[in-house]
């Protein structure tokens, strides 16, 4: 049965592939809004507010003490949790030098060479200060030592930098922009996990909460990139209650000529991916079969694959909650130029909605 | 919050020019812009933008190089990825590595097509021996979102199309501008503003004098632009070269005695040759004032 379902999942769904252009436009608008908000781990407020603004009036979102955003829909058991993370990789200011430049350390996994010698933004409470990442000297570029990255805000002394309002603990990113490539391909930084966040937003907007057969919790979590911290807090607060958790997060794909293609081969444009095995979780086979069946029942193309990385759903493991993560194929993860396919994003939103309504 | 100074004509123009492409030998787009900014100017046989002011026999020349190191599309692969070829010219160690994992612009006759230079996903390096190698242009693959050679062609992309890092001039500090070749672009902006003023103000050029203002091509390669001016319009009593950073144009000027006495006015830059080459716009304003004084000098 399972093999048959997996095969079915890989078959093209021509009806679903011909997506409603209006639905694609709506999905793209939500994704663009979220991508062009900034939220390094620990400073996700701008993204959280963007999600809140996109939600329908009935949602009545709540923010917990960790900073996670919750929307609870439906009534009764079982309780199913869907979780996408709000944060993105970036840097934290650790010191301000005598020369006014900022010492920074990464938050999340990055190649520092991709940031050196690039425009920068220092994010404070309610404002951003434009700056540049200083170029690495050749030795640091070879070693890839992120500790050697420094940020120039255009000041020449610590006092000048402080006068700009910059403080230790602030975060640093580079300016970003959502850009359409050929066809339905899109590029930007922080698709991981603004795509998941956007898919959940679209699902909430489209579903009728009165028609849900049980409780569904949509969670937008914080600090995933630095150790699933927000999800851990949510898992502790829910304890044994959830019957199932679905992390809605990136499927890092080997769909690129630079990657070894011995696993993680999920082509872009062929639908969301059941993230059956990664570094943090293994999906129970029966639940994988069920996910494939749910997708098939709505004509949603679904790929099944294995990749690297962890996911928020694994934070629920200590309470015995099965994790059935769902992703979408992404190229060039955690780089300034992540590439996704808009059709996959729209299908992911449909699948999230289907999971909430039918499973 | 950073208190940035109010934009001036030089400021605005420097940002505009810093957002344009002029890969060595393929400078047409930037030259077209300069011609539109300078009424009465013309494109000469080398592709330079040239403006002649005054009718006197005593002739002086002011030039600014416009070109920049860059890349062209070398080949379109069957899977829709583009390979790159470095533009010829002075070698620049480390420049190729600036492309990895960055957005680029492919300049086609139909407009700019966005692309990205592929980079390995950090998640997929976990637990593997294969460490990221040094990026070179030969390992560069550009993803424009296409899945086939035909789809790339439908975007108007052909081999030899110029490719540059995506230009997004970035202001920071009080009056700093960061962009690829920001120094050279700001220097050219100062010369454009001065030329427009000289063209508009009757009497700025002293009697019995004339000034040629030229924005020259291929300075990073053969000096074809400057050489053509020297050989077709010289001799000059004096030549002022404006540029950013080390002013690469000075190396070729000695080859043409008809340029007369050569003076270099180079804007100081920080992080030269990087995507965040930085110039102070107040320096560019001062350069514009110096150039205006030089044009108005009686000889």
What does this structure look like?
The complex is a heterodimer of chains A (359) and B (299). Chain A has two domains: 257 residues, 3-Layer(aba) Sandwich (Aminopeptidase), CATH 3.40.630.10; 84 residues, Peptidase M42, domain 2 (Elongation Factor Tu (Ef-tu), domain 3), CATH 2.40.30.40. With 359 residues, chain A is of the alpha+beta class. In chain A, helix 1 packs across helix 9, helix 3 packs antiparallel against helix 4 and helix 3 packs across helix 10. In chain A, the strands form five sheets. A six-stranded antiparallel β-barrel of chain A has the order 4-5-8-7-6-9. Chain A is 30% helix and 23% strand. Chain B has 299 residues and is of the alpha+beta class. Chain B folds into two domains: 186 residues, Zn peptidases (Aminopeptidase), CATH 3.40.630.10; 97 residues, Beta Barrel (Elongation Factor Tu (Ef-tu), domain 3), CATH 2.40.30.40. Chain B contains seven helices and 16 strands. In chain B, the strands form three sheets. Chain B has a six-stranded mixed beta sheet, sandwiched between helices. In chain B, strands 4-5-8-7-6-9 form a six-stranded antiparallel barrel. Chain B starts with 8 loop residues before the first helix and ends with a helix. The mean pLDDT of chain B is 90.
Content-based structural category of chain A: alpha+beta
Residue ranges of chain A: pLDDT <50 for 5 or more in a row?
Answer: 1-17
Spatial order of strands in the largest sheet of chain B: 1-2-12-3-13-14
Q: How many domains of chain B, as an integer?
A: 2
Q: Provide mean pLDDT of chain A, rounded.
A: 91
Strand content of chain A: 15-25%
Termini distance of chain B?
A: 48 Å
Beta-strand portion of chain B reads 25-35%
Give a short account of the largest sheet of chain A: 6 strands, antiparallel, barrel
From the 3D structure, determine the CATH topology of the largest domain in chain B: Aminopeptidase
Distance between the termini of chain A: 18 Å
Return the CATH class of the largest domain in chain A. Alpha Beta
| Helix content estimate of chain B | 25-40%
Most extensive interface, residues per chain?
A-B, 59 and 53 residues
What is the general shape of chain A? Answer: globular
């Amino acid at each position: 049965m399972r093999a048959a379902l997996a095969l079915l999942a890989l078959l093209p769904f021509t009806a679903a592939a011909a997506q409603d252009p209006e639905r694609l436009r709506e999905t793209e608008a939500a994704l663009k809004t979220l991508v062009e908000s900034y939220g390094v781990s620990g400073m996700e407020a701008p993204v959280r507010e963007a999600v809140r603004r996109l939600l329908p009036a009935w949602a009545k979102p709540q923010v917990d003490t960790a900073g996670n955003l919750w929307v609870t829909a439906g009534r009764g058991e079982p309780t199913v949790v869907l979780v996408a993370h709000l944060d993105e990789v970036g840097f934290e200011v650790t010191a301000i030098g005598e020369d006014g430049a900022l010492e920074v350390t990464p938050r999340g996994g990055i190649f520092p060479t991709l940031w050196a010698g690039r425009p920068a933004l220092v994010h404070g409470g309610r404002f951003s200060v434009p700056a540049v990442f200083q170029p690495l000297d050749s030795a640091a570029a070879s070693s890839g030592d992120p500790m050697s990255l420094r940020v120039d805000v255009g000041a020449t002394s610590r006092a000048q930098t402080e006068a700009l309002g910059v403080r230790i603990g602030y975060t640093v990113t580079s300016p970003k922009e959502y850009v359409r490539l050929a066809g339905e391909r899109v590029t930007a930084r922080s698709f991981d996990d603004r795509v998941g966040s956007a898919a959940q937003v679209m699902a909430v907007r489209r579903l009728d909460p009165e028609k849900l057969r049980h409780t569904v919790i949509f969670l937008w979590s914080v600090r995933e990139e630095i150790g699933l911290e927000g999800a851990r807090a949510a898992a502790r607060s829910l304890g044994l209650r959830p019957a199932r958790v679905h992390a809605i997060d990136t499927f890092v794909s080997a769909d690129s000529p630079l990657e070894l293609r011995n696993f993680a081969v999920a082509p872009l444009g062929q639908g969301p991916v059941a993230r059956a095995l990664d570094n943090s979780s293994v999906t129970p086979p029966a639940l994988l079969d069920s996910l494939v069946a749910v997708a098939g029942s709505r004509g949603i193309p679904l790929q099944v694959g294995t990749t690297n990385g962890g996911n928020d759903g694994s934070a629920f493991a200590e309470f015995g909650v099965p994790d059935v993560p769902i992703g979408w194929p992404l190229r060039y993860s955690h780089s300034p130029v992540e590439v996704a396919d808009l059709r996959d994003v729209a299908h992911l939103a449909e699948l999230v909605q289907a999971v909430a309504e039918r499973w | 919050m950073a208190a940035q100074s109010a934009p001036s004509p030089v400021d605005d123009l420097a940002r505009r020019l810093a957002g344009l492409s002029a890969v060595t030998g393929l400078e047409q787009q930037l030259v077209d812009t300069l011609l539109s900014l300078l009424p009465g100017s013309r494109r000469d046989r080398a592709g330079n933008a040239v403006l002649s002011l005054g009718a006197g026999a005593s002739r002086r020349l002011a030039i600014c190089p416009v070109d920049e190191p860059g890349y062209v599309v070398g080949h379109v692969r069957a899977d829709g990825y583009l390979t790159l070829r470095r533009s010829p010219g002075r070698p620049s160690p480390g420049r190729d590595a600036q492309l990895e994992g960055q957005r680029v612009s492919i300049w086609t006759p139909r407009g700019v097509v966005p692309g990205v230079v592929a980079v390995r996903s950090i998640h997929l390096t976990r637990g593997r021996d294969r460490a990221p190698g040094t990026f070179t242009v030969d390992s560069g693959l550009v993803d424009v979102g296409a899945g086939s050679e035909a789809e790339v062609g439908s975007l108007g992309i052909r081999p030899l199309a110029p490719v540059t890092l995506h230009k997004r001039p970035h202001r920071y500090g009080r009056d700093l501008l960061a962009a690829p070749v920001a120094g050279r672009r700001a220097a050219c902006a100062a010369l454009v503003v001065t030329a427009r003023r000289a063209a508009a103000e009757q009497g700025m050029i002293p009697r019995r004098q004339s000034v040629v203002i030229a924005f020259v091509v291929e300075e990073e390669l053969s000096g074809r632009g400057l050489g053509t001016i020297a050989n077709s319009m010289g001799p000059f009593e004096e030549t002022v070269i404006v540029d950013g950073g080390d002013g690469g144009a000075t190396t070729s000027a000695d080859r043409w005695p008809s340029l007369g006495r050569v003076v270099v006015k180079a804007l100081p830059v920080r992080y030269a040759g990087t995507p965040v080459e930085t110039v102070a716009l107040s320096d560019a304003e001062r350069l514009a004032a110096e150039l205006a004084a030089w044009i108005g000098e009686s000889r």
